[in-house]
User: Fold these one by one.
Assistant:
Number 1:
Amino acid sequence: MIEIQCIEDAGELGRLAGVWNGLLQRSDSDSLFLTWEWVWTWWEVYGDRYHPLVLVARDHGEVVGIAPLMVARGAGRVTRHVRYLLFIGQNEDVTPEYLDFFVVRGREAEVTPALCEYLIKDKGCAWEVARFESMLDSSPNLAAIQQAFARRGSPLRLMSQVECPYAELPDSWDAFLQSKSKHFRKRVTYNLRRIEREGEVRLHYVDRDVSLEQAYDELVRLNKERWGEEGESFRSERYLEFHRRVCRRLLPQGWLLLVLFKVADQLVAAKYDYCYASKLWGNQGGWLREYEKKEIGNVFIGKLIEWGIDRGYNEYDFLGGGDEYKKRWGDSLRMMADYEGWNDTLRSRAFRAGQQGRNWVLAQIPADWRQKVDRVRRTLGI
């Protein structure tokens, strides 16, 4: 029989460290963004704004499933009275992807419904709205979660979807290039040769050629150099602190791929990726603006893909976003989506009715007035 424990204390959550990754790697939800190193670091940096609601499923004492959840209050004048059920990691400037429950492979049909039943029935008093973001449509748990909410009369609603391109890696760099168009191959080769004419190209890897602290500082500098005022990454103090801490934890595990790109001893670019579960995970980068026209970003990706192929990695995952460069390098797509579901409580029914009434009123407003009304709504938090 499946027994469910609900953890609502951060100290008690910390005691799951010994079983967390082992269970994750026995599941079909295995993702870097669900590892203990990522989740616990996130909680250390951002957790003071949230209440943990982590469900642990056990079968005869063995942990067979975890739902890594938390509760947050809305930020507006009205929504502050509403409690949102979220995956740990949502809702902040750090944006993890492929979030999910994780359950022993093959036992999802048994364990996931038990987790959902407890969440809705026994802990239904703790939340009004569930927002499950960044779930893969191939999630082994999604169908069971959808069915559980549908049985309660509030089916999960699809809020948005995004493409996640990825490249399958063959046995050699030459084979990878041959799988691409002639134009692609010429472009990659041309840009690399153009940069090589300026001097020797060298990649400096963290912990082998450069210290983590130095590489991280250079990454931040080059990211700001690349994006200027338009950038969103490495801006807030919490964001900077989170990634500094998580890099320190991922490095000893062999999961960090932080690399500096030098041309004739000049540092021109930095790339911050991950290597986990037999694949490379594309993340952030930055470079000197004068190298923009030389397509330094594409050259760097090629170098890291070649590095990954040489070490037996089978995929480069570009994660969410349909950017053209991702589609050029990738040969396949995953789909990732955000879902919303409502709890059947008096407070949630009242809030939902208010939302529906507000939407009806807004629909009656002439289009040229809606922008002004939206500004007022944001100001008032309604």
Number 2:
Amino acid sequence: MEFISFFEHYVPPKPDVCLVEAESLNDLHQSGVIGFYDTHPINEEEILTKLAARGANLDALTEADLKDFDQDHYGGTDAVNALADAAGVRADHHVLDVCSGMGGPARWLAHRYGCRVTGIDLTTSRVEGATRLTRRVGLDSRVEFKQGDATAMPFADAAFDAVVSQEAWCHIPDKRSLIAECVRVVRPRCVIAFTDIVSLARMDPEEERRLLAEMLIPRPPLVREYTQLLGEASCAIEQSIDLSDKWIAILMARLQMYRSLRDTTIAKFGEARYLEYDRAYSHFVGLFVKRKLGGFRVAARKA
């Protein structure tokens, strides 16, 4: 893929790089992220194939059918529930899911809590797939998805009662703008709750290069960098929970799960993409095993 070959030879710009060059690099990074998720092993077709193999009626799906296959994050619906509890989600809330992917968490929130949910994602194919899956399970009156940039969201100030996200902000280099936008769109005294990948120990240059080249993840922040940005944005930290140990087992299981999708991945994207992703994800999981990467759940309340 072109986005992989670029980042394999990526050299960070000098500090005096002009704004136009910086914007071009950001655009290229966003294109890489879009390409990464356009060819992700978990996709609408794969989800429906798994459901059909289980014997589900694809013309009469329920959220109970879908929830076992569409939670493309760590920990399934239990993790969504923990995030919703941290955010204090209620039936009368309108929740924003930032970087909503295939829409699994958004659908589950609407199903379990009865709330309205809007998801925003950079990748058009994920937005379209999430919309179709939502329609299949009859949740489209309460759940919608929009294509957009999380650092410049197309929503009014104070439009939402809670903001949630799961393991997606790692792809976004500009964490300050991301946090500022989440704070802008949530109502006063409401909560931003998210899980994300963080740095636990210094990676060597080759590990950092591969993480960027293969997983489209620039150097993950320390958890204190997230909490500092939230504090600077007038948010009070209510929860900061280390999930690193739990995630190691989950990630190792996910690596085997992705390998079980070999045939469907090759059929859709080709053997080269399967092997490329397997190499990338193996390295990624290895960084968790070596305790260089970890995971945290953070919840912060806007003033």
Number 3:
Amino acid sequence: MLSRPATWIVLLLVLSALAAFGFYWWTTARFLQSTDDAYLRADAVTMAPKISGYVTDVLVRDNQPVAAGQPLVRIDPANYRATLTRQIAMRAARQAELATSQAQLQQQLATVEQAEAQLAGDQVDAKFAAGEAERYRRLAASGAETKEKLAQMVNLRDRSDATVRSDKAALLSAQRQAQTMRAQIGQARAQVEAAAASIHEADLDVDNTLIRASIAGRVGDMTVRPGQYVQPGTRMLTLVPVQDIYAIANFKETQLSAIRPGQHAKVAIDALDGRAIDAVVESFAPGTGAEFALLPPENATGNFTKIVQRVPVRLRLQTDAATLARLVPGLSVSVEIDTSQAPPAPAIER
């Protein structure tokens, strides 16, 4: 048995330990919410072609870091360049047709002016012939002129009137022909624009023969090979933005009452021997994990057993680039959130 002083020492140590634990629980532990149902994630992008063709070059390799806009895969552009050349030639032909139609319109407008001048001159002659016929009619009535002369003047008047009618018809025909040519010019312009659009489309197809990285990241899941025939939408490789990796922690709904965006967290990564790195709560999923399952649960029928649901919480990692370079999506982590910290107040819009 221990002596009385030793017993008091042991009792004092136990009480001190309990007091220290109580103090730690009251000031810290009771505010911590943790889960080991957490993983690293990244918003990977699948690269696929917009056109079909045979792959001539694969310009990257598996696991290679790439920058946004960097060439990844080249598809044989020969057919698409031939199409572009043909479309350029077609536009030149359409432009020539437009120029011809415009020249023909100018010529027709000159014909209209000529017809207008002819009509104006013949109208003057017709007016003079009508006046002469009327004058000889009076002279013939008084016996000063013969009826034969009157008949000649009337015939001249009628012929002048017929000439005027013919000139009007010719002028109307020339004007309508000019209108037709204007419509043909509009059609020719539309054909030139359509040819230009075809050139733009063909040029895009040529440009799309070179597949470029849409984001910066690391190449993964590469299945494309030189000589392979690909079609629009064919999965060739995946770009993983490992520099923007984040954590998804699935907390129980009973743990969410004090968790808020902006709170500090610790993320312990199994792949780094449990090393913990700083993180910040970023956002909550708009539903529980069960809501987004392939077969969501249906609790409206049969017996019901209440099951605590989990809600995915996204956390932004705060560490150096060297550490981020060692992390990949899918790694298991443990997350601990300190809910004692009040989240930052939202900015007031002015």
Number 4:
Amino acid sequence: MPLGPQFSLIHSEFNEFLFAPVGKEENGAVLTVLSALTRLGIDPWGEAARLSALPKETAARMLAAAIAVLPEGDWKVSDAPAIAARLVDRLPSHGMPGVLATEREKKRNEKSRPVRAKWVLRVVLTAALLLFLSQLYDHHSPEPAPNIVSSTQR
């Protein structure tokens, strides 16, 4: 069974970003974004997709935080923001930053409104039913049984 397009390395829209060098490690090997994210236990393609959906400044800040956790190579922790900004420029753009997130949030809220309204309606109807039943029970509760033992039998 062939793998889906999201797993294809040849045609991935994130290749330019994922295979970009972060810098050289102490042993002289080039550390790519793909290797760096993998070492941090982060799914590289998932993270690339997530970062590309964010405004560039936010994506750069998040990537800089990840780079700062890595052991230093030919870069210093203080270089992380500049490295991240350079790398984020290699991400594909998915619409206007900020606007995309706002639109996505609006759609999510619009979808959840009917669900919330249904739950509120169910709670209100259940409360009304319970109130009605409690009132009905109070009005039709049986009278205490008269004392069967009469005072003459004592």
